[in-house]
Structure formats: C-alpha cells, structure tokens
Inverse folding.
C-alpha cells in the first residue's frame, strides 16, 4: 500500500513545485546581489544580471564604523561561542543535579526553570539594561555573554534535564561503587555520555544567540562591539534602495549559519524536533 | 571494597523539612549514591533568579512609575495603563499583535502539517526536501525581512508577477491593511519549516500497522487521518501551537525591518512599541507598562493554549 505509485510520484512533483516557489526569494537574493550598481537600477527585478559583478560585496566588506560587517561577524562568533560554553557548563551541572535529585527542592528548582522558559523576557529587559548600565556592562562583549547565558539558561537546563532523566544510572552507580567521588563520576562517566544533549543545546541556543536582534540592538547598538545582525541593520539603514548592496550584506551575514547548517542539518532538524519534545 | 553509600544530604534534608519536630521519613526512596553536589545547581539558579525573576519583578515595578531613565521618578499607580487603554494607537498595536500572532499560529501549523503529511512517506527525495524547506528557519529574521522587503517593493518581483495576471501593482508595505498581511506572510514563510519538522517527528510515531489494517478494512483516507493520525500527533500539535503562538506575540525584527511600524503606526505591535517607548523615547515607566501587558498577554495565552491542547488520553 505504501509502494511508490503514480500518485506518489505526482505528490513528489507537487511538493517540489511548492518547494521551489517557497525558495524563490533566494533566487532574487542572489541575482540582485550580483548586479552592478547601474544594473541594479536599470534592470527589472526578476531578471538576472547580464554582467554579474561582485562589486557590491566589495563595498560591503570595506564598510567601516558601525556597519563593519567583518567585525560584526567576529563579535557574533565570540558572543555565541561564549554563551554556548557558559550554558553547557553551568546548565549541565545544574540539570544533572536537578534531574537526579529526589528531594523536593529539586522539583521546585526544576519548575523554576520551566516557568522561566515561558516567561517573556521583554519586561525584565528594562531593569537589566539599567543594571548593566550601572555596572558598565552595556556595550561589552562579556556583558552580552552573561546576558544570553542567563536568558537561555532555563532552556539549556530543561534540555539537559530531559536528557539526564532518560539516562540509566547504572554507569554512575558502578563508578561510585568502585569508589569514585561524585565529581569524578560526573566528569568521567556522565560528561562523555551527554554529548548528544550538548549538541542539541549548542545548536538551539547558539542559533537563538546568533540571530538575536532585539537585545543586541539595545545593549550593543552604537558601541563598536555589535554583532552581525546589528551591523547589518545599520548598514541597510544607511542605504535607501541599493538592493544589490543590501543583498550582498544579507548573503554575507547568512554564510556562517548556512555553512554550519549544511554540514550539520541532521543535527539541526533532530535538535528542533526532538529537543522540543 | 565497600560501597560508598551517600546518605548525608538526602536524609538530613528530609528531617529538616518537617518543622514540627516529628521524625520524618524520607518521602522518596533513598538514592543509592550521591549524584553530584547540590551546590552545582547554584550558579544556574542564581542566574535565572536574577535575570528572569528579579529583573521581571523590577520591570513590573517600573510599570507603575513615570520614570524616564534618569533622575527621580514618581509612583503613579495605574496612570500608565489608563494612558495605554485610552490611546487608540496603542489599542491598535495590541490588535495588530493579536492578529499577527493568531494568523502566524494558523498559517504555520496548517502548512507545516500539510508539508509534513506530503513528505511523510515514500517520496524519494524527502530528505532533501526536508533540508531545503527547513532552511529558512535558521536564518536571521532580519535578513529574511530584507529579502521580502525587496519582493514587496513597488518595483519588485511580486508586482511584476501579479502584473502578468492583469492585477494592478500595489504598494504592499505602505498600505495600512496590506502591510500587516505582508508581515504575516514573511513570518509564516520563515517558520513553517519548523512546524513541518515537529509534525514530521510526530507523524513518525503513527503506527503503520494500524493504518494498513484500517485501510484494508476500507476506511477512507480522511477517516484514517481523523481517527488514527490526529490522536497520535496531539503532542506535536500542542508543542507546535504553543511555540508559534508565543513567538508570534513577540514579533519584532520583521516589523522593524519591513515597515518600521508604519505607515503612520499601522503595523506597530506591542513589542515594537515597548522598544520605541523605552529606548527611543526614554519613557522607561511607560515602556515597562507596555511590556507588562505584553507579558500578561503571553502568559494568559500560554496557559489557555496548554489547556486547550492538553492530552486527554
């Protein structure tokens, strides 16, 4: 009944057509970015350039000041990697203890994290901004790392805790019976085993941090330490309809995440579907 | 070698909890060993308490003041909220927020489910299709909005295409009604892939045997779908709809990039208003009041959402 019938083939064709229509925007993205300045103004929006040029990319890459995209990429990398590390270390330790705990405070703490996931962050952002300002952390990379780590910690803890709950305790017990201290049990036994969960946490939270705009704009706007999204925002804001340049910067901003995605798509998709479950 | 059985923290905590002096029995089975140290959870708890709970409480406090970010402030009670509900522009942004959120919820779930159903079985290229259709999800909403800004541009491809059908070109992003729909399309375009993936995971749990048996018994496709598939994907429906609703209520990047809240504030949402009031106009107290309303809206709908899609099996 689930053989590959003619109807199945038809379904496949229909889905492909739908997929290609859905991905049309990328077509426009690329042909427009490759247009020279005058072609961008003269040719129709759906027609490809007759003389593709990479001038717009050159212009974007040499833009300075607030729109410095290479610097923005660097900052994004630093902040994302830093946040992921913070979440993996602090989150896994906390989730491990909470998942294995049999006391009431363990469940209370766990619900604390659960509610914090749903709790919207907009309201807290204002006092956080004030506090950060007092501490001089506004516009600092470290401040952002701390902010993102704290904001996404509930998600990280939740993902890790779900994983630990499903992890059989046999290995840990065996190690403890052999005389290992709880610390050694964790670092020698549990840590290697939690690699898949770490992958999920890293991908989900890393994606959120990398693409974040709202908080980045508020805390890093104009500070010289901005991330790639904010740099892109400033650059585009300075142009009016230079679509070739706008799309050049869009493509450049997408390259890191798309490369990562193409290498690890299975992990991405599994992370979203499974982690969220 | 004797087993190291850690009973310290567990039992002691248990007895401490019963404050009336009676000896308490541990309510749960004692674990065989001590797993980690309880204080390992402290940094995480501290961070969450601070960055989520205390900050939110602080924000809620500011909502009742007229603070402008510098200098003193006065406690003004519900004045901010009165202002909000008397201002038609702000009521408008509340309506926009709700429209975008529910439209987003419906479109992404509907098309996500359809795509998942289409991709679920036997297609030869389903893996590639899945990768391609999920791709927009990993992009930055800001970048995606810029692409669509071009498409919706008056001289852009969309107007060219509808021109082939003899329809007049429209000013998509400058029209009060069309612009909101345009934002909705952009939001849905990017995130339908996420729903698709969630539903694909859910559909994978549908037992093929039961479906085959039902088919052999002559059940129509629709009947099979309703009675077998739908109950199995209930958890996916719950998850997908909650995620999409909350995400939809918080929409910010797309509005800022596509219309900036225009034309004339017609596409403002609560989130964009919070940003403008607080950070552009420095009305910290007023912005906090708006943020508080947004928070309450999200919390209320999350709870309703959970109740509506609760698995009653």
């Amino acid at each position: 009944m689930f053989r590959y019938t003619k109807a199945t083939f038809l379904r496949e064709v229909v889905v492909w057509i739908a997929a290609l229509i859905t991905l049309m925007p990328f077509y426009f993205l690329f042909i427009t970015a490759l247009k020279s300045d005058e072609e961008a103004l003269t040719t129709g929006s759906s027609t490809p350039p007759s003389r593709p040029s990479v001038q717009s990319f050159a212009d974007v890459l040499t833009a300075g000041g607030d729109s410095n995209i290479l610097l923005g990429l660097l900052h994004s990398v630093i902040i994302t990697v830093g946040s992921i590390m913070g979440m993996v270390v602090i989150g896994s330790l906390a989730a491990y203890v909470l998942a294995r705990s049999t006391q009431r405070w363990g469940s209370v703490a766990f619900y604390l994290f659960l509610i914090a996931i749903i709790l919207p962050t907009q309201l807290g952002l204002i006092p956080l901004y004030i506090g950060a300002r007092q501490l001089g952390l506004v516009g600092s990379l470290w401040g952002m790392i701390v902010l993102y780590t704290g904001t996404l910690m509930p998600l990280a803890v939740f993902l890790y805790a779900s994983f630990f709950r499903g992890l059989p305790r046999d290995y840990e017990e065996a190690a403890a019976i052999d005389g290992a201290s709880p610390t050694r049990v964790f670092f020698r036994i549990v840590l290697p085993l939690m690699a898949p969960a770490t992958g999920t946490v890293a991908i989900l939270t890393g994606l959120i941090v990398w693409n974040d705009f709202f908080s980045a704009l508020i805390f890093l706007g104009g500070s010289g330490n901005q991330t790639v999204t904010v740099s892109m925002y400033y650059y585009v804001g300075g142009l009016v309809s230079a679509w070739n340049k706008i799309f050049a910067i869009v493509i450049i901003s997408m390259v890191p995440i798309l490369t990562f995605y193409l290498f690890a798509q299975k992990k991405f998709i599994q992370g979203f579907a499974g982690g969220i479950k | 070698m004797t087993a190291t059985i850690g009973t310290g923290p567990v039992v002691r905590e248990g007895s401490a909890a019963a404050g009336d002096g009676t000896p308490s029995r541990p309510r749960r089975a004692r674990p065989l060993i001590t797993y980690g140290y309880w204080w390992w959870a402290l940094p995480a708890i501290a961070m969450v308490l601070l960055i989520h709970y205390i900050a939110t409480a602080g924000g809620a406090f500011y909502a009742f003041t007229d603070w402008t970010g510098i200098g003193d402030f006065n406690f003004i009670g519900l004045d901010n909220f009165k202002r909000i509900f008397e201002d038609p522009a702000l009521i408008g942004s509340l309506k926009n927020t709700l429209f975008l959120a529910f439209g987003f919820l419906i479109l992404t779930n509907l098309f996500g489910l359809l795509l998942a159903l289409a991709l679920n079985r036997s297609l030869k290229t389903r893996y590639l299709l899945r990768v391609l259709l999920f791709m927009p999800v990993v992009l930055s909403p800001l970048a995606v909005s810029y692409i669509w800004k071009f498409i919706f541009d008056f001289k852009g491809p969309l107007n060219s295409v509808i021109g082939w059908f003899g329809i007049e070109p429209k000013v998509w992003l400058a029209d009060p009604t069309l612009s909101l729909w345009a934002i909705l399309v952009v939001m849905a375009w990017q995130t339908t892939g996420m729903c698709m993936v969630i539903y694909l995971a859910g559909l994978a749990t549908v037992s093929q045997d039961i479906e085959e048996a039902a088919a052999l018994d002559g059940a129509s496709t629709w009947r099979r779908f309703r009675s077998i598939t739908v109950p199995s994907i209930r958890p996916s429906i719950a998850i997908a709809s909650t995620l999409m609703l909350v995400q939809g209520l918080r929409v910010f990047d797309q509005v800022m990039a596509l219309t900036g809240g225009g034309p004339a504030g017609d596409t403002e949402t609560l989130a964009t208003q919070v940003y403008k009031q607080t950070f552009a106009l420095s009305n910290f107290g007023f912005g906090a009041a708006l943020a508080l309303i947004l928070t309450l809206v999200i919390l209320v709908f999350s709870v309703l959402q959970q109740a509506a899609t609760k698995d009653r099996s």
